[in-house]
Design a protein that fits this description.
alpha/beta, TIM Barrel, seven-stranded mixed sheet, globular, binds iron/sulfur cluster
């Protein structure tokens, strides 16, 4: 046994929750769980997160240990070597999604605002003509190479209701361009703090409203819930909210928002180290506790209520994104499309991989004198080629670091707090996945059919009986 351990050749990770050990083979994305009477509570320490076999040799029960040893003979738990750290090549012709950010004008001042301070000071006023010119040049260049539809959105660095005249101009331009180009226009989220009759009328005919809420801002919550009544019942309403450090009662927060919205998506807030409220040891421990409590609260619901709750979680939600990936076992090789098939265009006439990076040094090019000049930069890498990620147990569920988060923390390869948050979400989603799979089958069936989730966790997920098939 110790030969196996000391060899460091086994790529297997554990965590425990309740009476179970969860066992993960990162390369194949296979997960099992095993009930055990004598779980060492030290293993539940979130600081340990998902720990490799080599660090818990003495804590893992011998029978599990022996099964792992046997399965390695059949090719399980094999580590993959690290390949070179190649950056992907950015090509404007591959772009399928573009966000136009004409200025930084907003009527709220969220404490965690993703827009760079210096950009806010410099680019309050709109220069919309440049944006239109850029769009025309970009479309002409792209069209000859890429026949796929182009999705356009706007106002990620500003508030749409404060820039609604600009939005309407863009809307008209896109309508005209649609005659010759396949374009879909997506509305950005609004903070719904101040709304005009024009905006209400537009949304009522458009049929979809996305709202971003800062859950620490009571005044915004009050205003939003009042302002929602101005929209027709048949408008689909989607709420985006951030999970913030030291936040309590995550289940109750979803539940509250679900009373007002058709869909709710929550995400951990991306923070730099310069913020007063940070992701640190204390807030990460709290998040771990809160996410476990969230899953326990879900499991207390009746089947009907649980299905309704899960179906009301939006597609951009961080927790259900992990849940879906656990079920589907499809390798995620890039964190997101930023700088691959998606870009943003800022008020400084520069192209960025993501709106969050607008105004940063990470511009991929510039629109000067009516021409697109690219500077041969790309920050995105394949997760297999990032050394820090290559040995991460959840690499294929995560896809690598968020570029915006790296910029905010000035980290080079990964933001370690982001990684810890990812593991917390992975663990809590895995617990729910197994409960649905083993004990709430009818809930799982409805949920995965409605959300079009392919179930690839379709092998024997009990570690004992799975390993028995291999003679262990
Ligand atoms: S970014 Fe962090 S959590 Fe994601 S794969 Fe890389 S090391 Fe793992
Ligand atoms: S870089 Fe980060 S913030 Fe930007 S799109 Fe990707 S995941 Fe989202």
């Amino acid at each position: 046994m110790s030969l196996l351990m000391s060899s460091n050749l086994v790529d297997v990770y554990f965590f425990s929750e309740g009476p179970f050990y969860y066992i993960l083979d990162p390369s194949s994305m296979m997960l099992w769980r095993e009930k055990h009477n004598n779980i060492n509570k030290a293993n539940s320490n979130p600081e340990k997160q998902l720990f490799p076999l080599t660090t818990v040799e003495k804590e893992i029960p011998e029978e599990i240990f022996a099964k792992i040893k046997n399965l390695t003979r059949y090719g399980f738990f094999q580590p993959k070597g690290h390949s070179s750290s190649k950056k992907l090549h950015f090509e404007i012709n591959n772009v399928d999604f573009i966000v136009l950010n004409p200025n930084t004008f907003c009527n709220l001042n969220c404490w965690y605002c993703y827009v760079d301070k210096s950009l806010k000071e410099k680019y309050k006023e709109a220069d919309f003509n440049q944006i239109i010119h850029f769009l025309e040049v970009f479309l002409a260049q792209r069209k000859s190479h890429n026949n796929k539809p182009l999705a356009i959105s706007c106002c990620y660095t500003n508030e749409i209701t404060k820039n609604f005249d600009i939005f309407l101009r863009l809307y008209k331009i896109v309508e005209n361009l649609r005659e010759k180009n396949d374009i879909i226009l997506f509305l950005p989220s609004t903070n719904l703090f101040e709304i005009s009759d024009d905006f209400i009328e537009f949304i009522n005919s458009y049929g979809y409203l996305a709202v971003s809420i800062d859950l620490s801002n009571k005044k915004q919550i009050e205003t939003v819930t009042t302002n929602l009544s101005f929209f027709d019942k048949n408008v689909i309403k989607h709420c985006h909210a951030t999970i913030q450090p030291l936040m309590s009662d995550i289940y109750e927060k979803y539940f509250f928002l679900m009373q007002h919205f058709d869909f709710v998506s929550m995400k951990p807030v991306r923070l730099g180290y310069d913020r007063k409220l940070k992701w640190d040891e204390k807030s990460l421990l709290k998040l771990d506790y809160e996410m476990r409590r969230f899953v326990n609260k879900l499991l207390e619901l009746t089947d009907k209520k649980l299905v309704n709750f899960l179906l009301k979680i939006g597609d951009t939600d961080y927790f259900t994104r992990y849940l879906k990936r656990i079920f589907e076992r499809k390798k995620v090789l890039h964190r997101c499309p930023a700088g691959i098939t998606a870009i943003s265009f800022g008020p400084d006439n520069k192209i960025y991989p993501c709106s969050g990076l607008t105004g940063s040094k990470y511009s991929y090019g510039e629109f000067v004198d009516g021409k697109l000049v690219l500077n041969n930069l790309n920050l995105q890498r394949n997760v297999k080629e990032i050394r820090e990620c290559n040995s991460c147990p959840i690499r294929y569920y995560c896809g690598g670091p968020c570029l915006d988060w790296l910029n905010k923390t000035q980290s080079k390869f990964i933001t370690k707090e982001e990684c810890k948050i990812n593991k917390i979400f992975f663990k809590s989603a895995a617990v729910l996945a197994f409960e649905l799979l083993e004990n709430r089958k009818s809930v799982l069936e409805i949920y995965r059919k409605k959300k079009e989730i392919k179930l690839k966790l379709n092998y024997d997920t009990s570690f004992s009986s799975f390993s028995q098939k291999f003679g262990a």
